[in-house]
Amino acid sequence: MRYNKLIIAFLLLLNSWSFSAFSQNAATNSGGQVNQIQPSIIVIPYKTEGQKYRSLLEDPKTGFEKRIAISRVKEAFSSRGFTTYDFEAELKKGETAGAFSASAQTDEKDVIIKNSGADIFVVVDINVLGPPKIDGTDVKIILKAFESATGRDCGSKDASSTPFYTNDISKLAGKAIDIMKEAFLNEMQTKFTDIVNNGRSVYVEFVLAQGAKLNFQSEVGTSGDLLSESIVDWMGKNAFKNYAKKGGSTALKIIYDDVRIPLKDQATGMNYEIESFGRLIRKYLKSINVLATIEYPRGQIVVTIN
Amino acid sequence: MKNVQKIILIIAIVGLHSCSPKLQSYSAEVNFLYKEAQGTIAVKSTGYGKNQTDAVLDAQKNAFNVLLFKGLPGTELNVPLIENENEAKSKHAAYFKKFFDEMNFKTFMMSSTESSNLIKIKGNKKITVDVKVNYNSLRKDLEQNQLIRKFGY
Fold it and tell me: Given CA atoms A99, A103, A107, A108 in this order, what sign does their dihedral have?
């Protein structure tokens, strides 16, 4: 009898240990309250291929216009209680880290977006027209927002200040942005609502490692399905609301350019990270005896089949 | 006995019907007038009622109804502040009771000026009112009361 009691006590102790190992730490326990992780946004100036941001921002003629335009767009986000990443700080960080060295082949825009970790980037294009082309000064601004991971459009608007007899570019830029900012933010919010309802979009790529023992035409598991067929079935079944849009595939690659994953874990209500979906993919592949490594470059999932 | 069952059934049906959210119809005769300062909008709204007071109140409520649930094309509020009218009204009935019935909407109304005389129409009276709305603070109120999400997810 006493022996049984000891066993029960031991089991209870073991249970409490296993629960505490995965439960929230007392110091950070929020009592089950979960705050939705918000998308991070960076506002960057428009540039053509090969142009350097530093010279764009410090150009004695047009640099001020670009800085003003960025600042006004940031203000628009702040007016809705949203803080954006600071472009100049990110640029400085990249410069300090030597990410823009002459030998680096990647474009500065890609480096900044990648290093900042921003989910969404907003490109501001400003054009100032003045005499002799027109009477007065007219500032035209185009705003475009994209998802970093998939390049999907998140909103686009343009507006003009209309010509005024003034050289105050700041005022005119502010006027142009004021005209469109609400409509632009509303359009972005509509896209966010779609994400809340239908999940966020993730790019997923399956590639074969060099010297991999399997290819996508190899039979896997016990059902006689090919690896490519198993992947297609699994993705269709496990994407949020079964939305997994195949982008294309070759003998060496299967691409899904739009797979939806939920913002919140549908079982626990916790924030759902891209890595959680990657983990599911890896575990599934393991269950059919396919070993894979997974990487998450800039909000994407790249699965390498070994 | 059968009669008792019938009565119970009728009461249940009436009860269930009264539980369902009612969507009061409102006029869409609301047109953009001007925008003076950021976060405000002035609209010309038409209202109907038995007398001037009722008609003015109806016009004011119509203005808010359109901004909240329909949006005004060609303005900053081209999309409605609240995406799903039915869902919002059934989920947040208390908020809308306070907003419309207890006149809470007036706390977001910066001005209201009658811009036409009271016109007699079939069994009713009609008036046009210029209503200026502080939609920035209205949006904040909707966010705080969780009728809409803040900017973001």
Answer: positive
CB contact under 8 A, B149 and A193: yes
Is B79's CB within 8 Å of A190's CB? yes
Confidence (pLDDT) at A298: 77
Model ipTM value: 0.74
Euclidean distance between CA atoms B109 and B40, whole angstroms: 10
Q: Verify whether the Cβ–Cβ distance A38 to B153 is below 8 Å.
A: yes
* CB-CB under 8 Å, A81 with B76: no
Whether the CB of B149 is below 8 Å from some CB of chain A: the reply is yes
Q: Do A39 and B83 touch (CB under 8 A)?
A: no
How near does any CA of chain A get to the CA of B8, in Å?
40
Spans of chain A below 50 pLDDT: 18-19, 21
Closest residue, chain B, to A119 (C-alpha): B152
Point out the residue among A39, A182, A183 whose CB comes nearest to the CB of B152.
A39
Please give the residue of chain B at the shortest CA–CA distance from A199: B153
Give the E-state strand segments of chain A in sequence order.
Answer: 41-45, 120-129, 138-147, 153-160, 200-208, 244-249, 253-261, 292-295, 300-305
| pLDDT tens-digit readout, A242-300 | 999 998 788 889 999 999 999 999 999 999 999 999 999 999 999 999 999 999 987 79
Give residue ranges of A with CB < 8 Å to any B CB: 36-39, 77, 79-82, 178, 182-183, 185-186, 188-190, 192-193, 195-196, 263
Average pLDDT, chain B: 88
Q: Return the closest-CA partner of residue A172 out of A182, A181, A163, A161.
A: A161
Instruction: Identify whether the C-beta of residue B46 lies closer than 8 Å to the C-beta of residue B59.
Output: yes
CB A87 within 8 A of CB A44: yes
What's the predicted TM-score (pTM) here?
0.79
With beta carbons under 8 A apart, name residues in chain B contacting A159. Answer: none
Q: What is the pLDDT of residues A176-206, one digit of tens each?
A: 998 899 889 989 999 999 999 999 999 999 9
Q: Write the DSSP string, B17-84.
A: HHHSPP-------EEEEE--STTEEEEEEEEEESSHHHHHHHHHHHHHHHHHHT--TTSTT-S-SSS-
